[in-house]
Amino acid sequence: MREQHDTVVIGGGQAGLVMSAVLQQRDREHIVLERRQLGGRWRTERWGSLRFQFPNWSLELPGYAYSGDDAHGFAHWREILSVIEDYAARTRAPVREQTEVTELRQDGGGFVLSVPEGTIHARRVVVATGPFQRPRVPRFAPDVAAAVMQTDPTRYRRPEDLPDGAVLVVGSGASGCQIGDELLRAGRTVFLSVSRHRRVPRRFRGNDAWWWHDRMGRHATTIDSFPGRQWPPSIVVTGVNGGYDVNVRQMAADGIRVIGRITGASDGTLTVAGNANEVLDEADQRFAGFLAAAREFAAANPDLKLAEEEPAEPLVLPVSVAEVESVDLRHENITAIIWATGYDYDYGWLRVPALDAYGRPLQQRGVSPVPELYFLGLHWMHTIKSGLFSGVGNDAEYLAEHMDHT
To answer: What DSSP line would sit under 85-130, residue for residue?
Structure first.
């Protein structure tokens, strides 16, 4: 019997479930397909100590708001998974788990989806498979000495799982900094290869950085406002131990060996760009820019009655980084490398003309050039909030409105 649906949502994470909730409000028949279990990546691709990077009060979905007793705390990833499971139950989302879509193609006026049980036909499809899909590993990774263990943030779980010896963490985004800090606190010798990032205070004048960005209108900035639609470097924050400032210079002062970008590998040696100080200088400038903007906003809004400003950390710690041109893995006893170098899209199963030459979705706020094919929940799909709990609902409403007029 031919299985037919008006709309198929691919992905059972927060984006897919929010799309389902919005579709239900509009009485639009649909089904949600999840290749594993609900919240698949939260369930299988998180390290043990990971906590939500944003305060609990920012956990918002259509019809759901945080109501616990730790609004200014940071949820453990298992708590986030519980939010997703509870939301699915509360909204009675029509989810079909363990149903991986292996191919999607156009078929006349709709689409055909290949799944383990056969095929599903749909008038329209929403691809909501997550903002971070496949860990990006450099092309030269196979040239690293075979004796060195290589992994990434989706497979790393805890320091004890790594072989004895020093660890090289490549990338100073949120994942790289958090893992590097955890390894240092566990007594490991850590090397950190830095990448461009934005440094902000975890809290300023009594409020979290997330509050400041929202109030100052930065969350409303759209991807179209950046040249070439290239989003800025990631903001580096952590929710571990109640949340604290992440400063790579401080990490260097605490004992982490900070080096520049890894550019190549030849057996036991890695080549390194001498750009570590340049990256840290830029992060310091962004930190200073944030403070200046926050102070200006506070002065213009005295009715907010913000807390008095506390003595801030020095904008630039007296820590210089010794640039190196190479790292001898054996000499430094580096036995493991964690590639925290970002993510690529994984749309090999999407057999429709909705991707560019690099495999990235062609879309404008989730609307693709293929009629009735949509994307949802991508990082910086429309604004920085598009891939987050608190922003995916607005994008889902936009897509539903678009559907109503097609």
So the answer is: HHHHHHHT--EE-S----EEEEETTEEEEEETTEEEEEEEEEE---
pLDDT per position as a tens digit, 291-308: 999 999 999 999 999 999
* Spatial distance between the Cα atoms of 376 and 128, rounded to a whole number of angstroms: 5
Q: Phi-psi region for residue 124, left (φ > 0), alpha (ψ -120 to 50) or beta?
A: beta
Q: Which residues touch 321 (CB under 8 Å, ≥6 apart)?
A: 249, 252, 258, 259, 276, 277, 280
Radius of gyration of the chain (CA): 22
Burial zone of 305 (CB within 10 Å; 0-12 exposed, 13-18 middle, 19+ buried): exposed
Helix axes 14-25, 389-404, angle to 10 degrees: 40
Query: What is the DSSP-derived secondary structure letter of residue 305?
Result: -
Residue 141 region, left (φ>0) first, then alpha (ψ -120 to 50), else beta?
alpha
pLDDT of residue 315: 66
> What are the structure tokens assigned to 201, written together?
């205070």
HEC string for 135-201: ECCCCCHHHECCCCEEECCCCCCCHHHCCCCEEEEECCCHHHHHHHHHHHHCCCCEEEECCCCEECC
Annotate 315-351 with DSSP letters as a single string: SS-S------SEEETTTTTEEEEEE---EE---TTB-
Q: What is the pLDDT of residues 322-368, one digit of tens each?
A: 999 999 999 999 999 999 999 999 999 999 999 999 999 999 999 99
